[in-house]
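Blinded run. Sample ID left blank on purpose so nobody reads anything into the name before looking at the predicted structure. Input follows.
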Amino acid sequence: MMLALGDVVRVRGDKELGTVAGLAPGAVLLRTSGDTVRTAHPTDIEMVARGSMPKTQTTEVTYLVFIAVGVIVGMLTGVTVGQLGAGLVLSAALTLSSSASVVSLLTSLFLRPRRIRV
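Blinded prediction complete.
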């Protein structure tokens, strides 16, 4: 199971809900109601909901930079393929697909949540 800080989990034994507060060797630290922290074995918990971080202005600017880089790479690919003799439809398809691929790759590499296998 992949967990990140802030994920909501339930302990199977007593059905107590908590958010993942950290990881220790062989245990997951849970923050439960009343601001108490308890440990649970990774096999004794089940995922309820994924936690998500609110988008910040830095994240939004990073998305825009990734889109700009993707469009530039896509245009360069389309122009290069067009100069090599490809038709207009093929050049347009390669421009679109390479732009989408670059944006997707950069986003998944740098803006994905950090999940840890437990």
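Unblinding after everyone has recorded impressions. The chain is about 40% helix and 25% strand.
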